[in-house]
Specification:
Rossmann fold; alpha/beta; 433 residues; elongated; 6 strands; 6% strand; 4 domains
Length: 433
Amino acid sequence: MDLFSAQTPRDLPGTPLAERLRPLRRQELIGQERVLKQMERYVQSGFLPSLIFWGPPGTGKTTLAQALAHEFEAEFISVNAVETGAKALKEIGEAARLRRQQYQRKTILFVDEIHRLNKAQQDVLLPFVETGHLVLIGATTENPSYEINRALLSRCRLVVFERHDASSLKKIFERAQTEGLVPEHEKLQPELQEHLFSWADGDARRLLVGIEEISSHFKQSKEALTLESLQFLLGGTVLGYDRQSEQHYDVISAFIKSVRGSDADAALYYLARMLKGGEDPVFISRRLVILASEDVGNADPRALQVAVAGAQAVELIGLPEGAINLAQVVTYLASAPKSNRSYLALKKAQQFVDSTGTQPVPLSLRSSKTPEMKALGYGKDYLYPHDHPRHWVAQNYWPKDLKAESFYQPSQQGFEKQIIEYKNWLKGHSSDT
């Protein structure tokens, strides 16, 4: 637990650049213009509600919470959800209640990673937030609607933070230079700055870590940085991707929609993001097998074969080479003609079964494997299609009390054109005996 007034002085040796450059006032924040306008309304009204700050890392959530506490002259208590239990939260709430009743002073509780609090811990906060004894500011990188109790979430205002764009990152970089935190001789060429901003991936804290790496380099060497040496110095980009987070669902959704929409290049982009983020390749291949039937279907019957073969290959050889198999499947499915008519036909059939209930199977279609079954008429009058021309014969396959329905309506895409021709032939001979 940290009190705002007791934070590490910015000028102490070894203090990270991100802390030394952290704005103390709301007006000093860079980016998040929409969020700052929302906060301005609260400041002008003199009322600060409980808030949930939702956004990627390094976008200013902690900084803004501290600035608001200073502006509202409130007691600021900061905790990390991972290190906090229900008992500690209750003690904080009780202290806030006494502080408000005895000194009329507001208490702001900042809970970092609030999505990591379990239901019981979140429930402890509820009465203190509800009565106004405590102003809660929770910070999370996860979708609050998934991770935070509905009762607590309904008593908070949701504030969405956006990832910093290149313009905001450049302003932060320039501020570091202006305040002397980046020596003059360490100025980077525009090409190197662009790589630094791209490497930061919208995370201001990560940007400042990169600047510290560059500063450390120049303390040991006066040799100018090249793009290659900067890439080596910074290492690879760590993408914001968590297999248990909203990113997991958003990226796989964009991936599937790109394949469905026949954009092979966009699909490959999302595939690369998932693989770089550590997604399970078996999960990806299973989704592609589903898509092959749901979105390609009989427009290209080979699509399912390709998807299944790809899934088997991925399980057989694993990563990294399995990514090549995935890429082949993705490009094939994205480039294939599309039809969802099989999927729609299944949905219609399921709805029909729900509405008509369990109907007796016609005797002619029942299994007649035993003498007893045959004696009951099972299988009697069944016409074996292969005994007839074109291996087809007109006969009824529907339960007696049901009228034949037409669930499957092939499209004009790919192989389904041939299916339409065959269905038309069947229809033309349906009266044959």
